[in-house]
Amino acid sequence: MQTNIHPDLIALPKVQEADAILRKCVHCGFCTATCPTYQLLGDELDGPRGRIYLIKNLLEDSTISDDSIAHLDRCLTCRACETTCPSGVEYGRLLDIGREFVKDHANRPLRSRMLTFLLRLVVPRPALFAPLLKLGQFCRPILPAFIKRHVPIKMPVLHQVEPVAGANVLLLTGCVQSAATPNVVASLLKVLQHQGMDAEVFHEGCCGALDYHLSAHEAGMQRMKAIIDQLFPRIDQIDYIVSSATGCGVTIRDYPEILQYDAAYRDKASAIVDKLIDPIEIVSGEAIEVATTRVAVHTPCSMQHGLGLTGAVEKLLGDIGFEITAHREGHLCCGSAGTYSILQPELSQQLKARKLNVLAEGKPDVIVTANVGCQLQLKEGANVPVMHWLELLAEQF
Q: pLDDT, tens digit, for every residue of 328-381?
């Protein structure tokens, strides 16, 4: 792709990075075949190739229309297009850079601005989010349907395993996961205990993903630096940093890229990422005696397109003894995508219905996933239990 970046922008390092990404695109269109929003809407501008052109025009003209911003906002950032792209276009990174410049031109509707403000105010702050979630759960029976679907039923902690302070395995809790699905980290503790491993639970706060993906880059990077400031002093005493929420895991994995222009943090970020793993990379798959259970595995976009761990959960659970049911369209997003289900509810609901239909084709007894957002999204509407794969495994012990 040929580019002609605006003279006022071309000297900026991030714009130069974006320009290099743009030039990799060969207009082939393979990405449209795996883009969830293009599948639903059939609009070139609601697919990766069209959005790449919109970002190109933004960086060339230093302006963008409200209609073009709406097309960018409809992107889930699922990164399925990156997995498909034969040219290695780093679309997710390009979109993040583009959104940073879009915010100076955006004239979004008041409702959208209010929702974004409230999400950024409440969700990354467990001290606010947890009590408000409990209040919502208490009032859930009388809430309107469009609000109720965003308030998950209270999920109890079923396993009581004492974490070990100072252990060389550190478990991250996640700001949303710690409040909405606390049994996930408890289950991970249970599974690791079964394998003879001690672990410490680390209440780290928000990883910065929510702010960063809502174009509040400075606020997001401040949260990222806060996580690094907590983890880096202990880095030599830690063997593994484990994130059981793949959405958080893929964001932390991207810290060195996001902070590459900050000399004080980029090397520290790389040192942390060197210790970062997903639970699927530390849990063993030895066969155990399990109840006959048909399991449909929904692999989150963050896990397959971000972390590159497609098929890992299916293999582990299959090796252990579960019957894994096959389904189509495993590459497509369930519509959760962080705050997407709130900011783009119509598209999110369509994607959820489509995902639940294909997951149900194999008549599973249970649906498992690996990210808190996907778990909550699919649970609201599924006809069978939906849980984190760690919860299913912990139940067997």
A: 999 999 999 999 999 999 999 999 999 999 999 999 999 999 999 999 999 988
CA torsion sign, 306 to 338 to 183 to 354? Answer: negative
Q: For residues 222-247, b (16+ Cβ closer than 10 Å) or e, as one string?
A: ebbbebbeebbeeeeebebbbbbbbb
Distance CA 14, CA 90 (A): 13
- Name the CATH architecture for the domain at 294-394: 3-Layer(aba) Sandwich (3.40)
Amino acid at 48: P
Per residue in 126-183, pLDDT (tens digit) is 899 999 999 998 998 888 888 888 888 888 899 989 999 989 999 999 999 999 999 9
Q: Give the integer Cα–Cα distance in Å for 270 and 170.
A: 17
Q: Which CATH number fits the domain 13-102, given the four candidates 3.40.50.2300, 3.10.50.40, 1.10.1060.10, 3.90.1150.10?
A: 1.10.1060.10
**Could you tell me if 266 and 259 are in contact, meaning their C-beta atoms sit under 8 angstroms apart?**
yes
* Residue 298 buriedness (CB in 10 A; 0-12 / 13-18 / 19+): buried
Over residues 200-216, the pLDDT tens digits come to: 999 888 999 999 999 89
